[in-house]
């Protein structure tokens, strides 16, 4: 199964251009049956998952595609990150967030 690195560094599989995201923020790894392991690579801003309306910081967490995550101050869902990565399978994806709608857009 693929592993998707996340961060600001152009070498990451999913590049997020947000100053609160570390250069090598973390990674997502599919585990099967709709479960993913997301991990934080000792990022400066931390990684969080929304649970019952609040944010819980994690180093490693099991999540599902619809789960909302926060990388630094950047809020998205696991599915949006994976969709961006899958749309260009085998190549790097640059991800930006539309400041008005919050939607992820590729560049």
What does this 3D model show about the protein?
The chain is mainly beta and 107 residues long. It is 8% helix and 48% strand. It has one helix at 78-86; strands at 4-7, 14-16, 26-32, 35-40, 47-51, 54-58, 60-64, 68-71, 74-77, 93-97, 104-106. Strand 8 (68-71) and strand 9 (74-77) form a beta hairpin. It is globular, with a radius of gyration of 12 Å. The N and C termini lie far apart (25 Å). The mean pLDDT is 86.
Task: Provide a brief overview of the structure.
The chain is built from one helix and eleven strands; from the N terminus they run E-E-E-E-E-E-E-E-E-H-E-E. The chain is mostly beta strands and 107 residues long.
Question: Strand arrangement, largest sheet?
Answer: 7-4-3-1-2-10-11
Query: What pattern of helices and strands is seen along the backbone?
Result: EEEEEEEEEHEE
Number of helices: 1
Low-pLDDT parts are: none
How large is the share of residues in beta strands? over 45%
Mean pLDDT: 86
Report the principal-axis shape: globular
Helix/strand/pairing category: mainly beta
Largest sheet: 7 strands, mixed
Instruction: Tell me the number of strands.
Output: 11
Cα-based radius of gyration, to the nearest Å: 12 Å
């Amino acid at each position: 199964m693929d592993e998707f690195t996340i961060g600001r560094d152009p070498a990451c599989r999913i590049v997020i251009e947000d100053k609160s995201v570390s250069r090598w923020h973390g990674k997502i790894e599919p585990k099967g049956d709709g479960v993913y392991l997301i991990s934080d690579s000792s990022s400066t801003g931390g990684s969080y998952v929304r649970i019952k309306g609040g944010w819980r910081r994690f180093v490693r967490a099991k999540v599902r595609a619809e789960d909302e995550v926060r990388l630094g101050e950047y809020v998205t869902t696991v599915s949006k990150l994976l969709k961006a990565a899958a749309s260009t399978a085998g190549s790097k994806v640059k991800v930006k967030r539309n400041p008005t709608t919050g939607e992820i857009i590729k560049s």
